C-alpha cells in the first residue's frame, strides 16, 4: 500500500469514527494500566465485566495494595491467568506507590519495568493516557497491518516499526484504535468481511471475500 492509499485508509476510518477509543473501561490512568495488564490473552468485554465492581472499590495503587492479592483474585477470577495477573497487579501497584507517588509514569522504559507490563501494554497506556504517538501491536493490528499492506512484518515489533514510519499525520494518535476496531469487527481472522469494508479498494489482500455468503479462499 503506497503513501496515498495509507492516508486515504485512515481518512475514511477517521470519518466513520472521528474519536476512536479503547473499549476497556477505566476512570483514571491507574485503572487504565490495570485494565490493560488484565486484558492480556483476554477479551475487553471479559475484563470490563470483572473490573466494574473492582474499580468502584479501587481507584489508586494504594487501595489496590490494601485490597491485597487474594481480594483482587476474587474480582478477576473470571479472567484467564488471573492468579499471575493478580500477583503482577499488586506488585506493580506497590512499585507505583514506592517510586512514583502513586502516579503512572509516562515513560516507556519506566512502564516496561513494571511487573506484567510489556511493550504493547506500555504503548497502550502512553497512547490512551498521555496522547503519545505509539502503536500497540496486538493480534488485530498484526493481522490488519500484514493483510492490507499498511505495515508488513514477521513480528509485532517489526509491524510497529513499519507503522511508526508509514502512518501519516493527523492519524498517528488514533491509528492503532482504528486498526484494532477494524480487525475486531470487519477484517476478522477467519473470514474478513470485505463485502462491507469501507477501505476494501485500498487493501492489498488477494483473497478478498466480497460475497457475504462465501468463505475465505484457501
Automatic annotation (TrEMBL):
It holds the Pfam family HHH. Keywords: 4Fe-4S, DNA damage, DNA repair, DNA-binding, Endonuclease, Glycosidase, Hydrolase, Iron, Iron-sulfur, Lyase, Metal-binding, Nuclease. The keyword Nuclease applies. InterPro entries: DNA_glycosylase, Endonuclease-III-like_CS2, Endonuclease3_FeS-loop_motif, HhH-GPD_domain, HhH_base_excis_C, HhH_motif, Nth. [4Fe-4S] cluster binds at residues 187, 194, 197, 203. Its cofactor is [4Fe-4S] cluster. Gene3D superfamilies: Helix-hairpin-Helix base-excision DNA repair enzymes (C-terminal), Hypothetical protein, domain 2. It catalyses: 2'-deoxyribonucleotide-(2'-deoxyribose 5'-phosphate)-2'-deoxyribonucleotide-DNA = a 3'-end 2'-deoxyribonucleotide-(2,3-dehydro-2,3-deoxyribose 5'-phosphate)-DNA + a 5'-end 5'-phospho-2'-deoxyribonucleoside-DNA + H(+). Its EC number is 4.2.99.18. It comes from the Bacteria. Residues 38-185 form the HhH-GPD domain. One of its GO terms (molecular function) is class I DNA-(apurinic or apyrimidinic site) endonuclease activity. Binds 1 [4Fe-4S] cluster. HAMAP family: Nth. Belongs to the Nth/MutY family. DNA repair enzyme that has both DNA N-glycosylase activity and AP-lyase activity. The DNA N-glycosylase activity releases various damaged pyrimidines from DNA by cleaving the N-glycosidic bond, leaving an AP (apurinic/apyrimidinic) site. The AP-lyase activity cleaves the phosphodiester bond 3' to the AP site by a beta-elimination, leaving a 3'-terminal unsaturated sugar and a product with a terminal 5'-phosphate. This is Endonuclease III.
Amino acid at each position: 500500500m503506497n503513501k496515498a492509499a495509507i492516508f486515504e485508509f485512515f481518512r475514511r476510518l477517521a470519518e466513520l469514527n472521528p474519536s476512536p477509543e479503547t473499549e476497556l473501561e477505566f476512570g483514571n490512568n491507574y485503572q487504565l494500566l490495570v485494565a490493560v495488564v488484565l486484558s492480556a490473552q483476554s477479551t475487553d468485554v471479559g475484563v470490563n465485566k470483572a473490573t466494574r465492581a473492582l474499580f468502584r472499590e479501587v481507584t489508586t495503587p494504594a487501595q489496590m495494595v490494601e485490597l491485597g492479592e487474594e481480594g483482587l483474585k476474587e474480582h478477576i477470577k473470571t479472567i484467564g491467568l488471573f492468579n499471575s495477573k493478580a500477583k503482577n497487579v499488586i506488585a506493580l501497584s506497590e512499585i507505583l506507590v514506592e517510586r512514583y507517588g502513586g502516579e503512572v509514569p509516562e515513560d516507556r522504559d519506566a512502564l516496561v519495568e513494571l511487573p506484567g507490563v510489556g511493550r504493547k501494554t506500555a504503548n497502550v497506556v502512553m497512547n490512551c493516557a498521555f496522547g503519545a504517538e505509539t502503536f500497540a501491536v496486538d493480534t488485530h493490528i498484526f493481522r490488519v497491518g500484514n493483510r492490507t499492506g499498511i505495515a508488513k512484518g514477521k513480528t509485532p515489533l517489526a509491524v510497529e516499526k513499519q507503522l511508526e514510519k508509514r502512518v501519516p499525520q493527523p492519524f498517528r494518535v488514533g491509528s492503532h484504535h482504528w486498526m484494532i476496531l477494524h480487525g475486531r469487527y470487519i477484517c476478522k481472522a477467519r473470514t474478513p468481511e470485505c463485502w462491507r469494508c469501507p477501505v476494501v479498494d485500498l487493501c492489498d489482500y488477494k483473497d478478498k471475500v466480497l460475497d457475504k455468503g462465501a468463505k475465505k479462499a484457501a
